[in-house]
């Protein structure tokens, strides 16, 4: 066996170093191009940079509400969204929106009649579902309401810290705080438990979706609820939400603050 292997080895070398083998172009139909490892590294780096640029552009379109309704993040942006959500980027963006909202809130002269309102959304505004989305591809998986409800029922969502800071400031300034969420009425008690555990001290109203509002677009549901507030004599001075459907539509707030969220879209 060893003899056979040696024979094959020497036959191969005698073949490729033979005159005909070297100069006969038919044996090598295309020129051999040796790529240096540095070239491959450069190409790889350029490709990575291009994906990052494309995904940054995609995220900008998400935040500016320029995209058509979308169901999942782009496959190629999984790493990008993961890095953004778990790295410094998301935190810095949250801090900025919270700080800006706080600066604005301080400039307002409240009437003192108890009718000045700040609205907060809950999910990805006060409470973070990032632990759930880490387990579900950062928005790459199609949203599964049954699985998500199981997570909500655990009542383990942590506070979004910059929002908690803003929340305390808004409370101290004397605003009425209305929580307006797309969560179902059946999650009322666990939502209260979760909010309290996460450090949200108190609020004036917690408005969830009752059966009458199931199936309605969030934009419609939230607009209706804001209109009811205005009809009741409240002045909506500030509104914080991670979805444009928290902020757009009827009876809008004087100023709205959009928190970042590149993981999902709610119309
Ligand atoms: Mg939300």
TrEMBL record:
The keyword Aminoacyl-tRNA synthetase does not apply. InterPro entries: Acid_phosphat_B-like (IPR005519), Acid_phosphatase_pln (IPR010028), APS1/VSP (IPR014403), HAD-like_sf (IPR036412), HAD_sf (IPR023214). May function as somatic storage protein during early seedling development. Residues 1-18 form the signal peptide. PANTHER family: ACID PHOSPHATASE-LIKE PROTEIN. Pfam families: Acid_phosphat_B (PF03767). One of its GO terms (molecular function) is nutrient reservoir activity. Keywords: Glycoprotein, Signal, Storage protein. CDD domains: HAD_VSP (cd07535). Belongs to the APS1/VSP family. This is Acid phosphatase 1. The keyword NADP does not apply.
